[in-house]
From TrEMBL:
Name under which the protein is recorded: Uncharacterized protein
The UniProt record lists the keyword Transmembrane: yes
Residue ranges crossing the lipid bilayer per the database entry: 6-21
Keywords: Membrane, Transmembrane, Transmembrane helix
Amino acid sequence: MELSSILMIAGIIVIILSLFLKDKSVQVEKDVEELSINIYQETNALKRRIKLLEEELLVEPNFQVKHPEVDKPDAFTSFQKVAAQIKTGQSSYTQSDLKSEKNNKPINGILVSQVLALNGQGLSIDEISKLSTLSHAQIQSILANGGKQ
């Protein structure tokens, strides 16, 4: 036998074997496609979560934090309340009345969870008040209600 016929027979055998063997590139293509679909789904899920957090925190999409307007009692209305109390014989319009006017605003859920977590760590109301922006009365009401408003 000549060398050319041996090479031809070996080539035919290799071609026949290649038809029966699985192609690994098909499996790799499927794996890459599954991976890209998973990454796409996770990215969309993260975008939805970020959007929900933005809406919950009232943050604009360009990440500019809105500064809350502080409800300060007008000096004239405070004066009118004191004058009305004096006229009717009520003698005490105290600082606690002013604080209760401020406390009528709902408290942010993040602050509520922070107060509950700090209380769970064993901190006192004074320490929690120093760490948060809430008054003692607000903290006591949060703890009394268990975080429900």
